[in-house]
Every structure is written in C-alpha cells, then in structure tokens.
Amino acid sequence: MRIFRVQLEVFADFWFYGLLFEHTDKGKLPLVISQHGGLGTPELCSSFFDSGNYNDMSMRIFAKGVNVFAPQLLLWAEGEFGEDPHRAALDNELRRLGGSIAALEIHCLMRSLDWLEKWEKFGGSFGMIGLSYGGFYALYTAALDKRIRAALDCSFFQDGTRCFGSDFAWPGAARQFGDAEAGALVCPRALRIEVGNADELDCVFGAQNEFVRLERYYQSARDALSFAVFDGGHEFCPADDGIRWVLERL
Asked: Is the distance from CB of 133 to CB of 99 less than 8 angstroms?
C-alpha cells in the first residue's frame, strides 16, 4: 500500500485536501471515495487512530481490493483537528453569491474525480461511501456526477420532517426536492441506503418513509436500489454487506 497526502488546486489558490490509498501489488482497479462526516477528518475515518463510529470504513473497503480517496471537508472538530473552519459563516457568504458550502464542496469532489480519472491505474470506475454528513455528500455527489457508478449513504437519508442544518437546506426543499428526489437523479445507477435501528440523530422511520418515495423512481432499475437497517446507532454500517453491494456494481 502507498498513501499520498493530496492537495488539488480547485480554483486559483483554493486547495482541496485528501488522503489517497493505492494498492501497489495490483493493476488497474476501481476507486471509491470514502467521505467522513461531521467533526471528522480523512485520518479519522481511515483508522490513523481509533476511528470511532466510522468503524474503519476506509480501510475496510480498501481491503476489498479497490483504491480509496478520503477527502477533507470543512467539518473537522475545532481544537481537536485544527482551527475553527467557520463553516456557517462561509456558507452565509456563499449564499449571498448564489451558492452554498454544499455546492462548493460537491464541486471540489467532482474536480477530484477529474484528476483521478486521468490516472489509468484507477480504471475509470468510481464509487462513493459516506457516514452522516458524508452520506449526504455521497448521495448528492452521485446525483450530480454520473461517473459515480454506485453510492452508499449511511446514516443520513431522511424524510422532510427532519430539521436540517442550514448547510443541508434550501428554500422549498421539504415540498419540492428531498432525499428521494436526489436519489432519483442517481437512477439507474446503484444506490444503497443504510441506517441504524438505534440511530439517535437520523430516525429509522424517517429513512424508511423516504425510501418508499424513492422506490417509485427506481421501478425500471429495481436491482440498482437497496435499503438496509442494521443493529446500531449513528455509525457507519458495522457489517460489510453494503460495501460488497457497492463493489459488485462498479
């Protein structure tokens, strides 16, 4: 294995950071983006130390024989992993310009794919997995970028009754465009939703209700959609079923 610290210049003097994990003993392989959640970092979700509720997600999928890119979003824990990223203030400034922090970070993720697909060793086949905030980015990045063939959204997917943070929300979303509609934009590509039966942040019933809405969009591609409830809380799925499901579809 080789590990690279990567910095990509997305705009002039605007850099996007991540960890790239490469198999050195194999040829061309797919690549999966492993996206951390709130208060997280690439190092945390990639088991540089105790990975907590990430349950070693980056290393588990790497061990299945794919390369992995773990990007850093403006979500780290202030004081523990760096200075305050001022996420809310930046989101407000971007909204004044007609954008948002979510739009900026999804753009950065898509530009990362631009760079990664130039490497023949990554095979041009991409997937994405994520926990919590990372599940949001897995869902919405896959909705916008058709290069992502399969995505796993863990512990984020919900119906419109959940009170979102401002960085998740936009005017009229609860009435016009929810997680089910984002999932519809992934179709007919593969999408798996997982949630814990004891998740203290994302209600399993809200996820189930929204999945019922999503199913109607996948009627002609039913094998490309999957939903699972696992025994656990707000964490990345402890079992490998979802990981295997994604890899089988790359």
From this structure: no
